[in-house]
């Protein structure tokens, strides 16, 4: 099966061995992220996704915050492995913080009470779509990335450091950079266990 979009989906992989160089400018990366998020669908076109992009020292700051937060809760004898993992993220060129604006979600819950329970779920779906869109856009430019979730442990420190509004809920952190080593082989479960087709 040959389809350019499917091929791009296949190209998007979790890359752990990242470097701090980029094949394109930081401005180009920023524009890619903006366009990918802007054109990602959301329920009621609510556009709940919010993004903070960090390069250079700001990117390093994020992973230093994460490391020190974890140092306080990870047993000392196990911290070396944790530190090595965090350092591998810090080795990248930048990070993307994905948030959802819960003020918008709350407003929709009040405006459309019949769907109130669904709006937080739809917000999570919108965030996932935006994350995937950005990841695929980066992959198309041969930029490696991996998606991390140190929220809610780092939420308060992130809000304080970058001045994000109280209503912005941190959902994921995507680190990106040059691909120092490709992703390994990916296994798949049998189609018969995953898909049902009726005609």
TrEMBL record:
Q: Which CDD domains match?
A: Frm2-like (cd02140)
Annotated Nitroreductase domain residues: 9-177
Protein name in UniProt: Nitroreductase domain-containing protein
- InterPro entries to which the protein is assigned, alphabetical: Frm2/Hbn1 (IPR033877), Nitroreductase (IPR029479), Nitroreductase-like (IPR000415)
Instruction: State the UniProt keywords alphabetically.
Output: Cytoplasm, Oxidoreductase
One Gene Ontology BP term is: cellular response to oxidative stress
**Which locations, inside or outside the cell, does it occupy?**
Cytoplasm
Does the record bear Cytoplasm in its keywords? yes
**Glycosyltransferase keyword on record:** no
Q: Which GO terms describe its cellular component?
A: cytoplasm
Phylogenetic lineage = Bacteria, Pseudomonadati, Pseudomonadota, Gammaproteobacteria, Enterobacterales
Q: Name one GO molecular function term.
A: oxidoreductase activity
């Amino acid at each position: 099966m040959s389809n350019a979009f499917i091929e791009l989906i296949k190209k998007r992989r979790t890359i752990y061995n990242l470097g701090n160089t980029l094949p394109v400018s930081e401005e180009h990366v920023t524009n890619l992220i903006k366009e990918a998020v802007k054109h990602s669908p959301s329920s009621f076109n609510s556009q709940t996704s919010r993004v903070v992009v960090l390069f250079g020292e700001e990117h390093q700051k994020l992973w230093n915050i994460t490391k020190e937060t974890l140092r306080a809760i990870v047993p000392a004898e196990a911290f070396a492995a944790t530190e090595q993992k965090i350092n591998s993220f810090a080795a990248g060129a930048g990070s993307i913080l994905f948030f959802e604006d819960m003020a918008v979600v709350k407003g929709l819950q009040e405006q459309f009470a019949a769907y109130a329970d669904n709006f937080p779920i739809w917000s999570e779906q919108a965030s996932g779509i935006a994350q995937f869109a950005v990841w695929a856009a980066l992959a198309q430019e041969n930029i490696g990335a991996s998606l991390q979730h140190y929220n809610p442990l780092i939420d308060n420190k992130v809000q304080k450091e970058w001045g994000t509004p109280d209503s912005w809920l941190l959902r994921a952190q995507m680190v990106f950079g040059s691909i120092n080593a490709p992703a390994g082989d990916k296994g798949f479960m049998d189609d018969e266990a995953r898909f049902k087709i009726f005609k």
